Amino acid sequence: MFKTLCCFFLTCTFLFADANATSKLEEGIKIDALHQKITLIDEAVKDNLWFKRYGNYLTYQKLLEELSTVDAEVKKFKNTKDKASLEKYEKLLTKQESLEKQIELLQEFKNSPFSKLVDAADVESYTKVTNPFAILSALSYIKKIKQESLDYKARLERLDFLVEKLKEKETLLATLYEIEPMITNEDALYEAQKELNAFTSAQEIARTSYSLYVKKVEEATIRVTQDITVQMKRAFNIGIFIIVVIVVTFLLKFIAKRYVKDNERFYTANKIINFVNVTLILLILLFSYIENVSYLVTVLGFASAGIAIAMKDWFMSI
């Protein structure tokens, strides 16, 4: 009976040990899989522009802390006179200078790591399109602001991708901490949560900023497009008027050629018709595009003088 109990006890012990070993093996496999997934996420986000700027921000903060420590050490050894202390003091001064230079290079990360990425570029104001020659520059302006909007959208998409990956990483680290409640895993989870909070806040600000920016771009595009449409319609109407003037000119020339037999009179009439034709075309263009009416007085003066000169021969022949 005793032997039977011993055998049963040993069998149970071996089975429990085997089950425990199997459980630990499965746990180890699961932990390795979690670490691999976390590594893949780190690889996927390491070149992300938002992540790099956040890394620069953390570097800036660490440099500030290190400089604060060095400053305290410098003050401590400032008045020492023994050789060993002086050597250490010189090293501290060198390190202090190096840290100050590094901090100066990272000065843009003093307040926020994402200020340049979150802030949308101002939509440049565009002067009203007042003539057909400005249409090309207006179209270039529309293309430019739309491209800037697309660039901002691309930045936002990279941020969205980063946030999704960091959420995955946080979930993986939380699972890892449940399996292995170690200090290192706890610290890693805390850092991941800290990063995620920072990027989530930036994401909210960026989305709001992008929404406002898109509205500004749309408003500017609509305004400039309307100006372009107006100018194209005006140019079309002016073109019709000019064509009518040219057609009338050819008709007058045809009539003059048919009914004026004297060559000299025909030459004078042809000259007057040509000048009136050019003058009318110029007046059409000037009335359409000169905004300052005072300029028209000068233009009309030159036109009158031109007509008088053109008709001089005709008056002399009377």
Automatic annotation (TrEMBL):
InterPro entries in the cross-refs: MS_channel_1st (IPR049142)
UniProt keyword annotations, A-Z: Coiled coil, Membrane, Signal, Transmembrane, Transmembrane helix
Protein name per the record: Mechanosensitive ion channel transmembrane helices 2/3 domain-containing protein
Transmembrane feature ranges: 235-252, 272-290, 296-315
Originating organism: Sulfurospirillum cavolei
Coiled-coil stretches: 60-109
Residues of the Mechanosensitive ion channel transmembrane helices 2/3 domain: 271-312
Signal peptide: 1-19
